[in-house]
Design brief:
Radius of gyration: 20 Å
Structural class: alpha/beta
Bound molecules: threonylcarbamoyladenylate, magnesium ion
Order of helices and strands: EHEEHEHHEHEHEHEEEHEHEEHEH
Number of helices: 11
Oligomer: single chain
Number of strands: 14
Largest sheet: 10 strands, mixed
Strand content: 15-25%
Mean pLDDT: 94
Low-confidence stretches: none
Shape: globular
């Protein structure tokens, strides 16, 4: 079996939905990153996700829904804040962590008492969820479609590169628009908690809530994106302040070590012949290309990947989070 990348016309979507209902895995595009989907009501199918990713079983998955009407099916309690955030940001890149309904299987929640839910906005994800619902499905559990700990996938080809033939069907919806994962907000305690900064700015969420988000404390729910090392390229990577980038490159080269560079403001030296990508100067543009750039620079097989640091402001929070973990 080899993985096949298909253009998602109506027949392919119906086929994908049928495969999901039969317990198979299907990779699909979302507006954030590609997801590796399974029927969230089928524990055996969900366990296949963990096996394919090499992901430890205690790490819960996000359940993707066609719309907010299905919230009660998954969540025992839907507080007013959840309704307000859903109304403001769904469909879109926001994941809500809510107290789970008793029927939600442990394979999805990693045995936790909460469940992660999101309604994606990518037209192919929505069409897949609709086709899945037409066949009786209620939610698609999907982590990012990458091997555990590796850089997330923002194109169908990235998914194929990571999984080879262990995923039989990949729906191709082009390059993901946001390029970075959803923002995760937990509504399981009195005050909303920002579990993972993401495609929606924390300030925009705080505005809807009318109060700032708390940061996770010691007993916050587990989230693999919150591990110190995650989203990591294979090449040893380091964050370097912008003024230190060119001297660092020189130091490496003088020791006969090869370097690849993800730059932002720095100019490529005329005599530099290693891998070099200049990312956009704005945070949204940067997020859109980040994972593809890390994958491409990895292919240079340099000894070290140097990443020029980004601003320490709220709009860069999600990118900074990914870069910090990628370079841990
Ligand atoms: O943008 C996204 O969120 C993408 C697309 C495919 O939707 N998905 C994604 O999934 O990033 P994943 O599994 O790579 O990251 C989801 C994060 C994990 O860190 C997981 O631990 C956390 O969400 N999570 C899921 N359910 C949770 C729960 N009940 N409590 C706490 N964290 C949860
Ligand atoms: Mg992930």
């Amino acid at each position: 079996m080899t993985s096949s990348i298909v253009i998602p016309d109506a027949a392919a979507l119906a086929d994908a939905a049928r495969r999901l209902r039969a317990g198979e895995l299907v990779a699909f595009p979302t507006e954030t990153v590609y997801g590796l989907g399974a029927d969230a009501d089928n524990p055996a199918a969900v366990r296949r996700i963990y096996a394919a990713k090499g992901r430890p079983s205690g790490h819960p998955l996000i359940v993707h829904l066609a719309n907010a009407d299905h919230l009660e099916h998954w969540a025992r309690d839907v507080p007013a804040e959840a309704r307000a955030l859903a109304a403001a940001f769904w469909p879109g890149p926001l994941t809500l962590i809510l107290p789970r309904a008793p029927r939600v299987n442990d394979a999805v929640t990693g045995g936790q008492t909460s469940v992660g839910l999101r309604v994606p906005s990518h037209p192919v994800a929505r069409a897949l969820l609709d086709a899945f619902a037409a066949q009786g499905g209620r939610g698609i559990a999907a982590p990012s479609a990458n091997r555990f700990g590796h850089v997330s996938a923002t194109t169908a080809q990235h998914v194929a590169d990571d999984f080879g033939d262990s995923v039989s069907l990949i729906l191709d919806g082009g390059a993901s628009d946001a390029g970075i994962e959803s923002t995760i907000v937990a509504l399981t305690t009195a005050q909303p908690v920002l579990l993972r900064p993401g495609a929606i700015d924390a300030n925009a969420i705080a505005k809807v809530l009318g109060s700032p988000l708390r940061l996770p404390g010691a007993n916050a729910p587990r989230a693999s994106g919150t591990l110190a090392s995650h989203y990591a390229p294979k090449t040893r990577a380091r964050l370097v302040a912008d003024h230190a980038l060119l001297p660092e490159i020189d130091q490496h080269l003088s020791r006969d070590e090869s370097v690849a560079v993800l730059a932002r403001l720095a100019q490529r030296p005329a005599d530099f012949d290693g891998g070099w990508i200049t990312a956009p100067v704005d945070s949204e543009g940067y997020a859109r290309v980040l994972y593809a750039a890390l994958r491409e620079l990895d292919d240079a097989h340099a000894d070290t990947l140097l990443i020029e640091d980004v601003p320490d402001t709220v709009d860069w929070q999600a990118v900074r989070d990914r870069l910090t973990r990628a370079t841990h």
